[in-house]
Amino acid sequence: MTTTTSADGTRIAYTRAGSGPALVLVDGALCYRGSSPNDALAKELATHFTVYTYDRRGRGESGDAGPYEVRREVEDLAAVVKEAGGEAFLFGISSGVALALEAAPRLAVRKLALYEPPFIVDGTRRRVPEDYVARLDQALKEGKRGKAVKMFMTEGVGLGGVMVAMMRIMPFWPKLKRVAHTIPYDTAMVIDHQAGEPLPAAWPEVKIPALVIDGGRSPDWMRNGVASLAKVLPSAEYRTLPGQTHIVKAAALAPVLKEFFLA
Q1: Which of 129, 114, 116 is CA-nearest to residue 224?
Q2: Which of 8, 105, 211, 225 has CA 20 to 30 A from 168's CA?
């Protein structure tokens, strides 16, 4: 295991693979090395980039320190970029998009690629309930990790109850419960953009070239949020991957990232 140390002393575990310009991949909620779509993506990209994947704090082999603040995760990412030579391309997926947007103007990021942040910008999906954060925190305080994951999947992600019930009997459910305590971390990053209102110009400092991507088979609410993000970023282009969903295939995404980063 290779580690680096964040500004507050937290150990952050990471993996380096391939050769070429540095590219750091940022996971979304509940994901970490060995349990992430970025694992397959890293393999696809390693022939063209030196790819860094890492366990966000509180997950996998990384440490944690409280109380949680979003800026701590920015510092974690800064530590990984430092290991990558001080500058890098950056890719974020799902709620990892929000972290990448927060970090990009504070780090030496050359280009930024973003896939499907869970922003709710209109009435095509029910907004996240106002008491969601309080009930989520209470479930975790009571040690009800399974309940917290279910709440996240149904109320945060918007999945149907039947689908979540099926997930609870799948082999990966215990992995999700193991990192359930980090759900509030991602929630803190995205909750302000899940109220069913148009996105404000919240990231005026993100002036580097950006590619904002969605899947052609993803639900309307998510695609509307992605399109909205592309409009508010100063230097962004918007692209749709035909046939893809939020669970994007690495073979479909990797060529698009390669083309964008190396152009």
Answers
A1: 116
A2: 225
Q: How many CB atoms lie within 10 A of CB 5?
A: 13
Phi, psi of 64 (to 5 degrees): -155, 155
Is there a contact between 240 and 216 (Cβ–Cβ < 8 Å)?
Answer: yes
Q: Is the confidence at residue 61, as pLDDT, over 80?
A: yes
Instruction: Report the C-alpha gap between 34 and 167 in whole angstroms.
Output: 18
DSSP H or E stretch at residue 81: helix 70-83
pLDDT at 1: 76
Q: What secondary structure letter does DSSP report for 118?
A: -
Quickly list DSSP for 161-224.
HHHHHHHTTSTTHHHHHHTGGGHHHHHHHHGGG-SSSPPPS--TT--S-EEEEEETTS-HHHHH
How far apart are alpha carbons 159 and 151 in whole angstroms?
10
Task: Say if residue 67 is preceded by a cis peptide, omega within 30 of 0.
Answer: yes
With vertex at residue 242, the alpha carbon angle to CA 225 and CA 36, rounded to the nearest 5 degrees, is 70
What are the strands, taking DSSP E only, across 96-160?
109-115
The C-alpha atoms of residue 113 and residue 237 are separated, in whole angstroms, by 10
CA distance 183 to 28: 10
What is the pTM (predicted TM-score) of this model? 0.97
Are residues 121 and 199 in contact, defined by beta-carbon separation less than 8 angstroms?
Answer: yes
